[in-house]
Structures are given as C-alpha cells and as structure tokens.
Specification:
306 residues; four-stranded antiparallel β-sheet; 8 strands
Length: 306
C-alpha cells in the first residue's frame, strides 16, 4: 500500500514538473516570438503618406471600433485587466519614444544599424506600437464614460484630449507636407518640391512681385520681405511675407526662408489636422485644471475650512 502511494506521488510530481516546464517553454517561446516580431517590424519602413485622407479617417474609425469591441466583450468577459493592459501599452509607447530619441539623434550605434532604424518613426514597429496605445487609451475612455460624475469630468477631458492629440498628430501626418518653392521676380509657379526633391502640384499659383530689403546704417542687410501674389481661378491675393510673419492661404502656410536680389525661397507647410491636435491639447489642459480645482476643494473639505 505504501509503495503504491509513493509511486502515485512520484507520478504526480513528474506530471507537475512536465506541466511547469511546458508553461515555462510557452513563456520563453512567446518572448522569443515577440522579440523576433519586433525586430522584423523595426526593419520595415512605411511611407506615412500611404495613409493620407480618407484612409487615415477610416483607420481612425476602425481604432474606435476595435476599442469598443475590446471594452464591450473581451475585457468584460475574460480575465484580462484593463489597468494592466494600459500600463503595458504605456510602457511600450515610452520605450518606442526613447528608442526614437536615441536613434534619431544617433546616440547609439551611429552608422552601424540599418538606415531604416535612424528614421524610427516610419518603422512598422513604431506605428503598430502607437496604434496599440491609442486603442488601449480608447478602451480606458469608454470605461470612464459609463460612470460620469464631477470627478470623472477631469478624467474624460484629459484622456479624450490626449487621444485626440495623439491620434490626429500621428495619423494626420499622412496629410502634412513641407514644401520648398523657388521664386523668381515677375514669374509664377504652381508647384513646389518635397524634402526628397519630388515636385508636387499646388492648388494655386504663386508669383513673386518684388523683394524688399532693409539695411543698417553700415549697409549690411537688416530685414527681408517678399511681396507675392496668389492666383486661384480669377481670384488674386497679394501679401507681404517676411521672417516670422508667414502668409496663410486656405490651409497653406508660406514662410520666407531665403531672399536674394530678385529671388526668394518659400517654405510651404500644409497641415489640415493641426486644429484637431489643438483641440486635444486644450482638452488636456482643461482636464488638468479640473483636477487641480477638485484637489483644492477636497483638501479644503478635509481640513475643515469649508
């Protein structure tokens, strides 16, 4: 009888060890898979402009739908903590930002790693990681919407603002263009060049009328200004552009970058999503202000001053 009991216990111990080893092997396998996946994604470069409007808008709506599905079904009926997943997503986002800073400024392994890594923000790893963070932030917001009170208003303002700023700032980059236009006096152009030297058509024409130069008493140049005309159909708009005084025309910001005797270089920036980012930043500030006010009221009440 004792021998059979010992044999039974021995068999149980062996089975438990096998089970524990399987769990350990699964964990190791999962970690190795994630590392290999991260390395593979980091070597894939994505042109952010492939997500230009309306694809980025559809992708934004898809992220909202995924957040809704995760909050309504996955995290409600399965043993998965939203708090832990949000902390994990935040950790990933911070790591990606830190890697971006290191690689962008050539702080580590300068000129050794593949060239795609030095433009880390265009890698699939960076984009997928931040999309994951945006989805988890959306899940957190949906959880907070279900219980609205005075304390939750600060939470909602700050988190919705953060979601708007990050999502619009990232996906909106697909519609952002920074162009360079070389103008000659009394000549007009309807195109400009990207940073990669590709010509891009403008929805209007820009003509340089003249260059105005101010001088110091010594004769050295003091300030430059370009008088330009913008033509679109039969409408003509004339404006004076100088350093730190750009001209905005239908979402296009024109900055005077260089000026010569009868030539100038304009930097033309198109960023249609910036107002969404501004709304997000204002919402975050309002949330922080509400947290501050609530903290003062709570402190005053606890101190018996009210």
């Amino acid at each position: 009888m004792r021998i059979s009991i010992r044999l039974y216990r021995c068999i149980i111990d062996i089975l438990m060890k096998i089970r524990d080893n399987r769990v350990a092997y699964k964990q190791i396998g999962t970690i190795v898979f994630l590392l290999l996946l991260s390395v593979g994604l980091s070597l894939i470069s994505i042109d952010i402009h492939v997500f230009s409007f309306p694809i980025n808008l559809f992708l934004l709506l898809l992220l909202v739908a995924i957040s809704f599905v995760l909050e309504s079904y996955v995290f409600r009926y399965y043993v998965v903590s939203v708090k832990k997943m949000m902390l994990f997503a935040t950790f990933i986002a911070l790591c990606l930002m830190f890697l971006y800073w290191l690689l962008h400024h050539r702080m580590i392994f300068s000129e050794i790693l593949p060239s795609v890594l030095y433009d880390f923000s265009t890698t699939a790893l960076f984009i997928v990681g931040f999309l994951f963070f945006i989805v988890m932030l959306g899940v957190l917001i949906l959880r907070g919407i279900k219980v609205i009170n005075k304390q939750k208003f600060a939470f909602l303002f700050s988190h919705i603002g953060l979601w708007l700023a990050l999502s619009a700032g990232m996906l909106g980059q697909a519609d952002v263009y920074t162009l360079r236009a070389n103008l000659i006096e009394n000549n007009s152009i309807s195109y400009a060049y990207t940073s990669k030297g590709m010509a891009m058509d403008l929805p209007f024409k820009v003509k340089l009328n003249k260059i105005h130069t101010e001088y110091y008493a010594t004769g050295s140049p003091k300030a430059y200004a370009a008088h330009v005309s913008v033509y679109e159909n039969d409408v003509v708009a004339t404006e004076r552009i100088s350093i730190n005084h750009p001209y905005r025309y239908k979402g296009y910001d024109m900055y005077l970058q260089k000026a010569g005797t009868n030539t100038c270089v304009l930097q033309i920036v198109y960023d249609p999503w910036r107002y969404v980012v501004f709304v997000g930043i204002i919402s975050v500030l309002m949330g922080a202000m509400l947290c501050f006010i609530h903290g003062i009221k709570y402190r005053t009440k606890n101190d018996g001053l009210e």
